[in-house]
Amino acid sequence: MTDEAGETPGEVAPSGPMISVCVPAHNGGRFIRETLDSVLGQRDADFEVVVIDNASTDQTPAILEAIDDPRLRVVRTPRLLPMGENWRFAMTQLRGALVKVVCADDLLRPGALAAQAKILTEDPSIALVASRRDFINADGQVRAADRGLRGLTGPCEARTVLRRQVRCGINQIGEPANVMFRMADYARTTGWNAHRVYPMDAQLWVELLRLGRLYAQPQTYAAFRLSGSNLSASHSAEQYAQTDELLGEVAREWGIPRWQGALGRLARRAVWAAWRIRIKLLARSGAAR
């Protein structure tokens, strides 16, 4: 089903699905069918899939039109929205009590939705649940397996998670595809930050951790696609500055010593340098888009 973008905020309908999986897409035709197959193939979970087609001009609309599944709903924006604005709009279109955002080139592994929903429905002290994830190339080959959540397992207090975040200098929790949270908790945050777009997932995790704990799953339930063109691969000076600003705010709010922040900045430089090398190697081999 295809809807035109509207302005009415989404609500959790009494008869709606338990989970909303949101797939923001702009010219995602190369991978979106693979992404949706990984979502629609999930078992033992009550969910809808809402694709926000952000004014795509490639084959994305035709691919979406060809998928006949009552769980899929497509909302098309009348104009191209900036990423942060689009993600904020996307949240108004969801009807589920639980939310997962999956970018149009990432994948879910079998059992992801059921396993994460079970934790959130059984333990109200948990504000977000995250799994490990694989890094894959354009061909879906795993380039690095079972990454993320280093040193974190099971229920974790917010301060423990955020101290590790500052000390390591990077997003330890991961990208949206390996995270699930409650819509009611999202409504208590400032939402996806349209002005600090590079670390906007990490910033939302910080805000959610003010409301409860993280549950770190030891399993791998998502795959993040390494790409020479996606936002996470750019590592520009602006991205570095925004991340540094966010982690500085976290350190001050949670009373984390300055030396840990300095250690994090050094670690981030090393990690990002290695990441840039990895992306260049993939691009040379034709594996990155």
Write a compact overview of the structure shown.
With 289 residues, the chain is α/β, with parallel strands linked by helices.
- The figure for the number of domains is 1
Question: What's the total helix number?
Answer: 10
* CATH-defined fold name: Spore Coat Polysaccharide Biosynthesis Protein SpsA, Chain A
Distance between the termini: 30 Å
Tell me the number of strands. Answer: 11
Order of SSEs, N→C?
Answer: EEHEHEHEEHEEEHEHHEHHH
Residues in helices, as a percent range = 25-40%
CATH architecture type: Alpha-Beta Complex
What would your notes on this structure say?
The chain has 289 residues and is α/β, with parallel strands linked by helices. The chain has a single domain, classed as Spore Coat Polysaccharide Biosynthesis Protein SpsA, Chain A (Alpha-Beta Complex), CATH 3.90.550. It is 37% helix and 22% strand. The protein has ten helices and eleven strands. Strands 1, 2, 3, 4, 5, 6, 7, 8, 9, 10 and 11 form an eleven-stranded mixed sheet that branches. A hairpin with a 5-residue loop joins strand 7 (126-136) and strand 8 (142-147). Helix 5 (158-168) packs antiparallel against helix 9 (237-253). The protein is globular and about 55 Å long. Residues 6-10 and 283-289 have low confidence and may be disordered. InterPro entries: Glyco_trans_2-like (IPR001173), Glycosyltransf_2 (IPR050834), Nucleotide-diphossugar_trans (IPR029044). Residues 20-154 form the Glycosyltransferase 2-like domain. This is Glycosyltransferase involved in cell wall biosynthesis. Belongs to the glycosyltransferase 2 family. GO terms for molecular function: glycosyltransferase activity.
